[in-house]
Design brief:
Length: 444
């Protein structure tokens, strides 16, 4: 039984936990049963996931809040966020790579079709309960959950359970404690004198690669802090999202929230150390470069299926194997991110595009098979007309970001794809650099 060893690791008793793992492992080392060896290795991966989660959770110490005015009952607090596009360095922000190797990511906050596409709002309500509403602007659907018992909140660690992200944010923001001898209603009444209603929405399709869930978590934390009389700066929210995603057990790195909470162009960095700490440097660009970017950046929604859920685990396995090509690629990811930020500072969009192309090759090395055939055909057709192009996020589908050589990028991309006969199932969107990042407003 591996569970006792896991429990020791969860409790922070690492030496005893490792000894318990070794004892149990002896029962599985049967050379005539190679399937036993594989199953034992998978259980060791389970132990590694516990340690990785605990390591990333050290980011919580960098969440800082300060007191602010408490909104009245019924008064909405609204947070709206841009999406983000990663232009170089992604995967180097992913645990354990980011705290063992160090990571750097250059990305940009984006308005899509002129709008901030991600948001959340919250308000205090009289009844001591939690009302969670997940809205989808894409199909005008809505899921409404009312939590009146602590048992209603226990699925916060099950990523695919309805409202799990919202529940994990509630736990991170300390609206209540799980587990507790006090009921949900008692905790809300004692701590806050009220209940809360929380809504979330996104105009971006699921699996877009634009960092939606992490950015949404940042928006949720911002409004939850505000309705409880607290404020957190963007850096605190970024570390809060790292913590939320470990509560949720979905894992994930830090570049999504860096890209969508802070405005415009920036490079995020994490040193190879524990506790896990993210630092952000804003990259200053001139109005001329901003205008050039806005007339050349285009998002193409490929509509293709994203990669399988075990992608992250495959990348982590390759990292722990210390395959020379993987380690070298991680070095190159960080170097390319620094070069991309330098190109932005210099206003050199041709070099930015070259970094994007190099980044796409690096992504394919990290996650082989992440380039669907249809995407490859689109990239081939566009290549003579662009400085660079890359699939957002992990690749495998979702949005493709294109930086055209000439202004009027939207019309150009549409024409090229139609002429090449490869754009039938795609949608093309304007992408503008967002210059304000997350906005939090208390409505009167």
């Amino acid at each position: 039984m591996w569970q006792p060893a896991y429990q020791l690791l969860e409790a922070g008793e690492y030496a005893a936990g490792v000894q318990a793992l070794a004892l149990e492992r002896e029962c599985w080392l049967d050379s005539s049963r190679p399937d036993f060896l594989i199953r034992a290795a998978r259980h060791y991966e389970g132990a590694e996931q516990i340690l990785r989660r605990q390591t990333v959770m050290t980011a919580k110490q960098f969440i800082h809040t300060q007191q602010s005015a408490v909104p009245g009952v019924g008064q909405w607090v609204v947070a709206e966020c841009p999406a983000r596009i990663d232009l170089s360095g992604g995967w180097s922000d992913t645990p354990p790579i980011t705290y063992e190797h160090g990571g750097s990511v250059t990305n940009v906050a984006l308005l899509i079709d002129g709008k901030k596409p991600i948001g959340a709002k919250a308000r205090r309500i009289q009844e001591p309960e939690l009302v969670l509403v997940i809205d989808s602007n894409l199909d005008n659907s809505s899921v409404r959950l009312t939590c009146t018992e602590l048992s209603d909140m226990e699925t916060y660690c099950q990523p695919h359970a309805p409202g799990a992200l919202l529940k994990a944010c509630v736990v991170c923001a300390d609206l209540l404690t799980l587990p507790s001898p006090s009921s949900l209603r008692e905790q809300l009444q004692t701590r806050h004198g009220c209940g809360f209603e929380l809504h979330t929405w996104s105009d971006i399709p699921h699996g877009s690669g634009l960092g939606t869930s992490s950015i949404l978590a940042g928006a949720i934390l911002a409004v939850l802090y505000k309705v409880t009389g607290l404020e957190a700066d963007n850096l605190s929210l970024m570390h809060g999202v790292l913590y939320v995603e470990q509560l949720l057990t979905s894992g994930g790195g830090w570049q999504d929230q860096v890209g969508g909470l802070d405005p415009a162009v920036k490079i995020g960095r994490c040193r190879p150390q524990v506790p896990v700490k993210v630092e952000v440097e804003h990259v200053s660009i001139s109005d001329k470069v901003l205008q050039a970017l806005n007339s050349r950046l285009v998002l193409v929604y490929t509509g293709k299926t994203r990669l399988a859920r075990n992608l992250l685990q495959d990348v982590v396995r390759n990292w722990y194997a210390r395959l020379p090509e993987v380690v070298a690629n991680c070095d190159d990811l960080v170097t390319n991110a620094e070069e991309c930020a330098k190109a932005f500072r210099e206003g050199n969009l041709s070099t930015v595009g070259a970094c994007m192309d190099r980044y796409w090759e690096q992504k394919k090395k990290m996650a082989p098979g992440c380039e669907p055939v249809a995407v490859r055909k689109m990239m081939t057709a566009l290549k003579p007309h662009v400085y660079g192009q890359v699939l957002a996020g992990a690749g495998g589908g979702g949005f493709m970001c294109v930086l055209t050589k000439e202004p009027g990028g939207l019309q150009l991309v549409r024409k090229v794809l139609q002429t090449a006969g490869v754009g039938e199932d795609v949608s093309i969107h304007t992408a503008q650099v967002d210059t304000s990042g997350i906005t939090v407003t208390t409505l009167e």
